[in-house]
Each structure stands twice: as C-alpha cells, then as structure tokens.
Specification:
binds 2-oxoglutaric acid, four-stranded antiparallel β-sheet, globular, Jelly Rolls, alpha+beta
Length: about 300
C-alpha cells in the first residue's frame, strides 16, 4: 500500500503525529511495545536459544557466531529466523502490539515477512555499516517496515540503531561494492551532504520498538559497554506488497496475514529497486567479503 493510502486509515497504537513523524523521518522509537509479560517470555526464549548455541562450533543456518564463541562462553551475532526455532517468537510477531504498530505503518492488512534476533555481546558486539534494507528483499512497494524490539535497555554505549533522518525519500544507493560483491554498505563519502546532522540515535528502555522504514539509511556502532544488546527484528509489509526475489531468511510463516485480510490485487510503486544476488540457495551475508573485525550484517 502506498503511504498516502495508509494515512487514510486511523492508527491503533501510535498517535497520528507519531505516524506522520515516522513517514517524515523514516525512523522512530516507541516505548512499551513489548510489556513486562512479553519481555519475560521473550527473554526466556532467548536464554534457551543461547543455551542451545553452546553446542555449535561454527556458524550455521540457525546461529551466526562471533569470534571467540565456545561452549563456556557463547558469543552470538545473530539467531536467524527466531520464529522458526521457538514458538514464543512467532506468538510475539503475530499476537502482540508489534503487529498493531505494523498495521499503523503498513495499512490495516499486514503480512509477516521474516525475523532475526541480533545480539551485540558486551565489549565487542560488532558494528553494522550504513545500509538500506530493501535492496536485500525488494517488494513491489516500499511499505515494508522493520519493528525492532530491545529486549534489554539500550543506551548509547551498547550500539543502538542509528538512522539518517529523511534518507528514505532520496534515491536508493547500491549495496554492491566496486568489485561487484554484495557489500550491503554505503561508504561514508557517498552519504548525502550534511548527513552527520541528521543522524538519530535510536536508544530506548527494554520493550521499546525501533521502527525502520525499508529505504532509510541505518547502521549501528559496536557495543563498548559491559551490557548485552539483544534486539528482535520483525519485518512486516502491507498485504498487497509482493516480494519478487527469494526471501533471504525464509520461514514457514512468510506471507502470513497477522492483521486484517489477504490482498486480491498487488500494489506497485513506480520506483524500481536494485536486485540482490539470488538467495534461493541460501543467504550469503556481506561478512563473506569482510575481514574478521570488520562490520557485518543484514
Ligand atoms: O542490529 C543492528 O544494530 C543493526 C540491524 C540492521 O541494521 C539490520 O538488520 O538491517
């Protein structure tokens, strides 16, 4: 659904002004989207998954490991598709206020796309380069939105998400480097003039939702604190927004309607999108082209 049509529907959770600001800036933080009861369930599910990762020696389809990971000292970069590995994550994606927030931003009919649980381990959790999400998973319109939930408080030192306000309105950048590798990185010299003044640091207490428009330029710094930064990221779209490449993070839940009704017609935004590599044989993250210690991601 196009933004002007989304705005014709009343909001459920956000105020009208919060929504208008989101469409203006391309990002927002909303506190209290996961309440204490959900946080307890999500943290318990996360702890089970971290426990399971002790048995894993190399990154696989489920876990992306950080350097130094081992049975005594688990260090994860990501749990890929948490909804596929623990029912609590799907319950949250489908039943919680996270889906209501998505309905405010995508229109009343909302479809689930995919999910990931990104960790930033204390003292060293990796930074993420500046990038835009939609070239990794193009859709027929630009309604897709990421609802990221901080499972613990996230302060400046923990590497919160950072976004460049308003950058979603400009043309998309290429996510390939000069050698044609999928880099998912926008070099700083290619960022719009004055970008430093537009950086928003999306900090918030546990349970806050960080809302990221699929075109907005975003990234995050390393975690220099002694506290973990776990963030659960669910991607939703309008029901009439159709992905046209293989999902890099497939799950049995892809395409499930979580609010409203399925679409009968697809929605098309005339602005095209750079195509990613073919993910049908599996997603190859940009870390494949990076030296250890360099930024990694999406
Ligand atoms: O976890 C982070 O800090 C960044 C996540 C992100 O940018 C993404 O997954 O697209």
């Amino acid at each position: 659904m196009l933004t002007e049509d989304i705005l014709k529907h009343p909001t459920r959770v956000l105020s009208e002004s919060q929504r208008e600001r989101f469409f203006e800036e391309g990002c927002a933080v909303v506190e209290g989207v996961a309440d204490a009861r959900w946080l307890e369930r999500l943290r318990a599910a996360m702890a089970e998954m971290v426990e399971a990762s002790r048995q894993v020696a190399a990154s696989d389809e489920r876990f992306i490991l950080e350097e130094g990971h081992g049975p005594e000292d688990p260090r994860l970069r990501r749990l890929t598709s948490p909804v596929s590995h623990h029912e609590t994550f799907w319950d949250f994606a489908a039943e919680s206020a996270s889906a209501d927030v998505a309905a405010d931003l995508c229109g009343p009919d909302v479809k689930f796309y995919h999910s990931k649980l990104n960790f930033k381990w204390p003292k060293g959790g990796q930074r993420f380069d500046w990038h835009q999400d939609i070239p990794t998973w193009p859709h027929t319109d630009y309604s897709p939105v990421t609802v990221g939930i901080y499972l613990e408080d996230c302060s400046e030192e923990q590497g919160p998400l950072l976004a460049i306000r308003g950058s979603h309105k400009a043309p998309l950048h290429s996510m390939y480097d000069k050698q044609g590798n999928w880099a998912l990185k926008i070099p700083e010299e290619e960022l719009p003039a004055g970008w430093k003044d537009e950086v928003v640091s999306l900090t918030g207490p546990a349970g806050s939702a960080v809302l990221i428009n699929c075109r907005v330029i975003h990234g995050s710094a390393a975690n220099t604190s002694a506290r973990m930064r776990p963030m659960l990221l669910n991607v939703y779209s309008s029901a009439d927004s159709m992905p046209y490449v293989a999902n890099p993070i497939p799950s049995p839940y892809e395409g499930r309607i979580v609010r409203g009704r399925p679409a009968r017609f697809s929605c098309h935004d005339p602005r095209g999108c750079e195509l990613p590599p073919d993910w049908s044989k599996g997603y190859v993250g940009p870390w494949a082209f990076q030296k250890p210690g360099e930024a990694a991601h999406s």
